[in-house]
Design brief:
Largest sheet: 7 strands, mixed
CATH class: Alpha Beta
Low-confidence stretches: none
Number of strands: 7
Number of helices: 9
Structural class: alpha/beta
CATH topology: Rossmann fold
CATH superfamily: Vaccinia Virus protein VP39
Helix content: 25-40%
Shape: globular
CATH architecture: 3-Layer(aba) Sandwich
Bound molecules: S-adenosylmethionine
Distance between the termini: 45 Å
């Protein structure tokens, strides 16, 4: 078994063992970034099932040691990687089991290019969980690759690129990296409405009620941005 396959299986097993774990979140404005990867900023609390989130609270030498196994070496220098892990707050959690905190505890929930990594039922549950943990009036912002854009790429003849970018993401090292569903605006709106959100609206790239969007929104071309209120 390749080391990365072992790490993937190990992080998933830990996620399952900790599936009922909950963390008390306190502060003036509690902001959760779900399925954060390393696209993180400021005082957001970052939740992910990856190795990065698992080792973030370990001492710096662990970050250095795991850098090459993390997959982050494709995008970040070792120095950047260690700084990202050391200077931000992470919670390691498998979000297909829900969100690891208590009712009415967050002001903002942000999620970018993550919902499509969950099966349809788990995605519905995640949105339901977002409603549960948001305070009344709290805002959820979901960004996903737009199914309509993907279909337009297919129609324009970019069939292989479209399939490999959106449906059969080529990373056999990671279960979490695969896409398990896709959404257009109508489908995401219906799902948000179904679980109980109100005032659902499509937003422009880096525009909306959520703070720090100039740092968080990171894909302008193919993405669908939607916000809704509890
Ligand atoms: C494509 S990346 C997106 C990262 C970042 N949000 C961004 O916008 O670049 C998807 C992230 O979702 C995480 N992920 C996928 N399935 C997950 C699950 N069931 N529980 C927790 N995290 C998961 C992966 O580990 C990965 O970091």
């Amino acid at each position: 078994m390749k080391v990365r396959n072992f790490i993937d299986a190990f992080t998933r097993m830990l996620g399952k063992l900790k599936k009922n774990h909950k963390v008390k979140l306190e502060g003036q404005s509690v902001k959760l970034n779900l399925g954060c990867g390393l696209a993180i900023y400021g005082d957001w609390i970052n939740v992910d099932g990856s190795l990065n989130a698992l080792i973030a609270s370990c001492p710096g030498f662990v970050h250095q040691f795991m850098y090459h196994q993390s997959g982050a070496n494709r995008y970040y220098t070792q120095e950047e990687y260690c700084r990202l892990l050391g200077q931000h707050r992470f919670i390691h959690h498998d979000l297909s089991y829900g969100i690891p905190t208590f009712d009415n505890s967050a002001d903002f929930v942000y999620s970018s290019h993550f919902l499509e990594h969950l099966f349809r039922n788990d995605a519905e549950n995640l949105l339901s969980e977002s409603l549960r943990i948001l305070k009344p009036g709290g805002v959820v912002r979901i960004c996903v690759p737009d199914l309509e854009y993907a279909v337009s790429q297919y129609s324009a003849g970019k069939k292989k690129a479209m399939l490999e970018s959106y449906f059969f993401v080529d990373d056999d090292n990671s279960y979490y990296a695969r896409h398990k569903y896709m959404y257009d605006f109508q489908m995401l709106q219906d799902l948000l409405r179904l679980v109980g959100f109100r005032d659902i609206r499509r937003c422009e790239f880096q525009q909306g009620l959520t703070p720090d969007l100039d740092h968080l929104d990171n894909r302008s071309e193919d993405s669908l941005y939607v916000e809704a209120i509890k």
